[in-house]
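Students often ask why we bother encoding 3D structure as a string. The short answer is that it lets us treat folding as translation between two languages. Here is a chain of 328 residues written in the first language.
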Amino acid sequence: MPVYFFWGADEFRMKKAVRALCDRNLNPDWASFNYEKIPPEQSDAIIQGLNQAMTPPFGMGKRVVWLVDTPLCQRCSADLLTELERTLPNIPDSSILLLTSSNKPDGRLKSTKVLKKHADIREFDTIPPWKTDQIEHQVYQVAKDVGLQLTPQAAALLGEVIGADTRRLYNELEKLKTYWTKPNQALPPNAITDLVATSTQSSLQLAAALRQGNTDRALTLMTDLLERNEPALRIVATLVGQFRTWLWVKLMTESGERDTRIIAQAADVGNPKRIYFLQKEIRNVSLPQLQNALQLLLSLDYSLKRGAPETVTLHTKVIELAHCFKPV
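And here it is in the second language, the structure alphabet:
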């Protein structure tokens, strides 16, 4: 398929995919003639990209035309839509038209529907920190890409330490591969402890401290996160996701549901085996406590988005949240 649309906030993974696409299709000797990168500031960027994609390549290899950060799936005029409908089905196999955007395509737009019909659409969005099973799966995939075997404990530890930061994940795995001299054996977790810089502060650990009603530790973790320049809204998004998961697991469990697959589906947990551990985490927590905590978090998110001072607002809410889980 000669048309590709890559979207998502994970810029590092997207750039790797763009580079791989270019390497597969461009002849190095003729790349300067057949590669066109068109920035979004150009007023006629989309029209120029479509025209270039219809032009035969010069010399060997294919022509690659890249429309960078295109707004095509966020807004599209009637004239531009007509041009898309006319051009996309007729782009020759000797050309590659690549469109990229950090924003998710708006499925309501006709331009998005046209692209879905004629393009290979790939998502490169960042995995939310609370979706630990997806992060762990990504660790395995990247380890496979760099040619390194990991034990399950090592993969889990690496996912916990690095999270969804794919740039750092690739860098650390390349470093570990250089260090590991036993290619036929899986890398153990102690190698990660020795070589990967770890931080004991994370938003998920903050969520655990709040759930335990440990005000002092929660305040310390929040201070450390802010000192490491962790964005306040990202911290809150992680907390909201984690508490929402706990709330759904508690709600389904107290309603009498025993099938972990059904609970996992309701709680948006990819691996049903995690449900047992989530239930264990909230065994001593009541449903009203979780409901109250989620309300406070959503209020915090609203206040920050309205411009409330970050440090004072976050520390005040941390105290309120931890108080929700204080034993009566």
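Translate back mentally: The mean pLDDT is 89. Keep this in mind for the problem set.
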